[in-house]
Amino acid sequence: MHATCVIYNPAAGRGRAERLLNALPPSLASGVELRPTTTEGHAVELARRACDDGFAKVVAAGGDGTVHEVANGVLQSGRRDVVFGTWPIGSANDFAFTLGLDVWWKIREQNPPLDVLEIDVGRVTAPGRERFFVDSVGIGFNGMVTIESRKTKWLAGLPLYAWAFLKAMVRHFATPPMTVRFDGHEITGPTLALSILNAQREGNFPLRPNASLTDGQFDYMHAKGLTRLHLVRYLPAMVRGKLPEGHPRLALGRASRIEVQREAPLCVHADGEFVCVPEEGVKGITIEVLPQRLKVEVYRPALYGGLQ
Ligand SMILES: Nc1ncnc2c1ncn2[C@@H]1O[C@H](COP(=O)(O)OP(=O)(O)OP(=O)(O)O)[C@@H](O)[C@H]1O
Which UniProt keyword terms apply here (predicted)? Predict the structure, then answer.
């Protein structure tokens, strides 16, 4: 049997995935078994099966959606020794950015060496559902941005999410009251969005550029009673990863357990995949860190986007 199982989404990157995998450099292609997904959600099952089959390494080849599903499969398998790899061939590769793997992928022909790091993982629970995540969770406005990004097929990467952000701002801007408990500290008030980052980027925006994957904590951005004007004003800062510290309506902080309650049903994504949409009526959700729970491949020269 091969040592590595590569689970890939043929639909990722607007259909580019198949072409890229057919042109793998020999250093990556040898010792690898490719297993394609056939439908949404399939990668979870394929990853679980790859772990049961005894592969030492399981790679998610696709965008953040594929990363999310493969990571969930590996974590559900209970095997702690499996190394999780990411080949960023999707249209959003936020997790790969933090691991330095988007840089590595560009120079893959040179076969640069990768290291293994044990990173924190997040777990989202709500009544009747449980999900792991590796990159980020977005609640409220960010969930609506994800809905809008799914409707746009003609853009990718940052332009896609900037466009979806503007559409969500016109169609779904709302700041209903929300109660959020960050570890022992509870706040109730108008909330536009809550971003909870294990890695550094959400929807291509480097919202928390100093987030660590190994500190046992999430870095969050709590957008409270902002106006549309605030959003427009802070969009360039979000794109550059330079949100203001100490803003009364935009709190930045760290926590290892976050509980959210809202009267209006929640829209929540985890790594860009929906945990719940408003129609499902979910009003409460808990997000917690599982410290150093997953072994992942990283490219050290560009780890944390090469910034730290
Ligand atoms: N064979 C398939 N056919 C259609 N959809 C699939 C298939 N396999 C996976 N998917 C779904 O495609 C979605 C996007 O996958 P992924 O994130 O890997 O690609 P992407 O090009 O980066 O997309 P996105 O624009 O969402 O970031 C996921 O929700 C995933 O469940």
Answer: ATP-binding, Kinase, Nucleotide-binding, Transferase
